Amino acid sequence: MLSKDTIARFGNLETPFYYYDLGLLDQTLETCRSAAEKFGFHVHYALKANFNEQVLQAVRKTGFGADCVSGNEVKKAIELGFDPGKVVFAGVGKSDKEIIEALNSDIYCFNVESVQELGIINGLAAERGKTARVAIRINPNVDAHTHQYITTGLEENKFGVNQWELNSCIKELKACPNLKLIGIHFHIGSQITNLEVFKSLCVKVNELNSWFEDHGYQLQILNVGGGLGVDYHAPDENSINDFESYFSIFDQFLERRNDQEVHFELGRALVAQCGSLISRILYVKNGLKKNFLILDAGMTELMRPALYQAYHKIENISSLSDVQVKYDVVGPICESTDCFGKEVELPESIRGDLMAIRTAGAYGEVMSSGYNLRERVKSVYS
Ligand SMILES: *Cc1c(COP(=O)(O)O)cnc(C)c1O
């Protein structure tokens, strides 16, 4: 909930901007940390959800590791003080330059996404006299039951290696003296709200864990990725995920040896609810069939609605009217998909009103762009 004091502060600020409630962020991180500790689980934060420095500092202080998907994310995490021994690097297209830099930083693990990549990392590690720790990202063919654009664990997706390629992986590993296989990795999609999906994932992980044992590999790590969804419809009622229930599913259903570690890579669930995009109404257009609110923020600041038809709760945080009107809430960008919500019921709104687009802390600011030569969006904290 945006407090009256916070909203009063916004009155003097130039819009649009991201507002981060760092208190809520800390509470969320602490809830997750203590739940993970209870089960002895390890959490790496997926930087791609939000690499704003204040957010990263809060995550680092919690003691989480960093899950990176580009060389620059690896660099940034280490620059900001994350322990390289807690940095993992995934990504379906790691360039040689990115791999070399990560090798030079002695990161904890490469999550490898193809048989070919194993050979490339081995070669680059050999040239430097290093041994690279690797985990194989396996595509478990589990349907995440989420939006088609954010499901990643089906055989038709580009991510990871498929199960029928595991024999080739082992053959390749045997030919790669500068690689050490430490685990298997999975990430089946994002914004997963049906916890049954994670049970299905556990079943697959168990199967594959045994498969590796049968082939002579005692894996040290089972990395089950991220993907835990948040409540976009009720950000105030469900501002912090029930991390304990989430972890307890893995605790119950993952068969593991006592010395085997379970790793998670959470992004969205840690940072989504602490962020809102704050914007002002520039124009109100009353049409015959539709009323439009035209904001000073658009898809250049928050792309999720345009990119995945994602829902965000939209609030008029300054109107005092008790008349309710339906509006299409749109941005100023020259694209028809630049729309935050259709037929949104709001108090009657006027030019200059402040609007909050909620649950925008994950995949918001980080996806902002300079399209239409827009200014980079600013951020405000409390
Ligand atoms: C994006 C991503 C995550 C984080 O996903 P969330 O849905 O934000 O939790 C974790 N692991 C990998 C490999 C990813 O690409």
Write the layout of secondary structure elements.
Elements: H1 4-10, E1 17-20, H2 22-39, E2 42-46, H3 53-62, E3 65-68, H4 71-79, E4 87-89, H5 96-104, E5 109-112, H6 115-127, E6 132-137, H7 166-174, E7 179-185, H8 196-214, E8 221-223, H9 243-253, E9 261-266, H10 268-271, E10 275-286, E11 291-295, H11 304-308, E12 314-316, E13 324-330, E14 339-347, E15 354-357, E16 378-381
Helix pairs in contact: 2-3, 2-9, 4-5, 5-6, 8-9
Bound molecules: pyridoxal-5'-phosphate (PLP).
CATH homologous superfamily name of the largest domain? Answer: Alanine racemase
The total count of helices amounts to 11
State the order of secondary-structure elements, H for helix, E for strand. Answer: HEHEHEHEHEHEHEHEHEHEEHEEEEE
Stretches where pLDDT falls below 50 for ≥5 residues? Answer: none
Radius of gyration: 22 Å
By CATH reckoning, the class of the largest domain would read Alpha Beta
Mean pLDDT: 96
Bound molecules: pyridoxal-5'-phosphate
Number of strands: 16
Number of domains: 2
**Class of secondary structure makeup:** alpha/beta
Residue share in helix: 25-40%
User: How much strand?
Assistant: 15-25%
Basic shape:
elongated
Level-2 CATH architecture of the largest domain = Alpha-Beta Barrel
